[in-house]
Amino acid sequence: LKSRLLADIAAADTADSVETLRVGALGKNGVVTALLKTLGGMSPDERLEKGPAIQDLRESVAGAIAVRKAALEQAALDARLAAERIDMSLPADLGPVGSVHPVSQVMDELAEIFADLGFSVATGPEIEDDWHNFTALNIPETHPARAMHDTFYFPDGEADGQKRMLLRTHTSPVQIRTMMTQAPPIRIIAPGRVYRSDSDATHTPMFHQIEGLVIDRGITLGHLKWTLETFLKAFFERDDIILRLRPSYFPFTEPSVEVDVGYTLVNGQRVIGGSGNDKDGGWLEVLGSGMVHRKVIENCGLDPDEWQGFAFGTGVDRLAMLKYGMTDLRAFFDGDLRWLRHYGFSA
Ligand code: PHE
Question: Coiled coil located at which positions (predicted)?
């Protein structure tokens, strides 16, 4: 019996067949177990005579099973190690790689251009109060300009109108926050998200603006024009940028100037630069600007007879569209990789 069991165990070639043999020999109804049970019914002499052989059988079988099991486990491990070997010298597959979103990219470009002109970056909260977003900017409670802003107000706001919270409708409140915390001279840009209740191909309820503010002594409209021209030339990477300054109105600037930039038609496409006349191109409005209103300077605790300045504000998404020839503003915020790839923004 012993040699047969040991031979079977040695020949078993899977963990399952070893287990079947173990149950057959040492399990509750196994042959070796049955022999061990006979010991109980033996006389002491008989037990002394046959006991050692039965015990030896049990130990030999249990030992052989353990050895065989270990050998099979080792073999399985060796096979796995061989099959799953990784060649560490192969180049890795990095998977899809993302890229900086066009809007973020344009904001970075703008920050860089203005850094070269000595402007630093200022920020303000997107959840703003009525005073910073409107009143301090010379847009009092009853001013019609408020109607044009399609403001998102927070519902259970303060009874005091000045503290009423809203989503900022433009980056201009950062002008106020900067003038109230920084001593002039001031040269800042403020890029960020703004919100208006408006949605179509050229409007999204959230969009991006960049504000510019300069406060110093003796600042004139000439400084504004030079700054905008320099910035637009750098941004569109062309020397033939032609500006058209149109008189306009913003409550917080006086005088106010709307700025158009000339485009040329190339194969029916509007390309920024050159022309500006109706024959082979035209004008695109790119930003609002003006000399900071003396009342705004006063509202921030500065003396308007000593300090003057200019401010401008423009849509970052719009600048991105013009630079990269994109047509639908909403696509900026859809997260559609095909769109990003089409414009060369994603792997
Ligand atoms: N805040 C204005 C807007 O959102 C733009 C602007 C900024 C105009 C600064 C003048 C000066 O339309």
Answer: none
User: Residues 6 or more apart from 62 whose CB is under 8 A from it?
Assistant: 26
Q: What phi, psi does 91 have (nearest 5°)?
A: -65, 140
Which stretches of the chain are DSSP H helices? 2-11, 15-26, 31-38, 44-83, 102-116, 130-133, 173-181, 221-236, 294-299, 316-324, 337-342
Q: How far is the CA of 82 from the centre of ligand 1 (A)?
A: 68
Tally helices (H) and strands (E) across the chain: 11, 10
The CA 278 to ligand 1 mean position distance, Å, reads 27
Q: What is the DSSP letter of 194?
A: E
| 258: number of Cβ within 10 Å | 17
Instruction: Give the tens place of pLDDT for each residue, 267-305.
Output: 888 888 888 787 888 999 999 999 999 999 999 999 999
Binding-site annotation: residue ranges for Mg(2+): 254
Supply the pTM of this predicted model.
0.72
Determine the angle formed by the axes of helices 44-83 and 15-26, rounding to 10 degrees.
170
ipTM computed for the complex: 0.98
Indicate the length of the chain as a whole number.
347
The half-sphere exposure of 172 on its side-chain side, counting CA atoms within 13 A, is 30
CA of 248 to the centre of ligand 1 (A): 11
* Known binding-site positions: 254
Cis previous bond, 255, omega within 30: yes
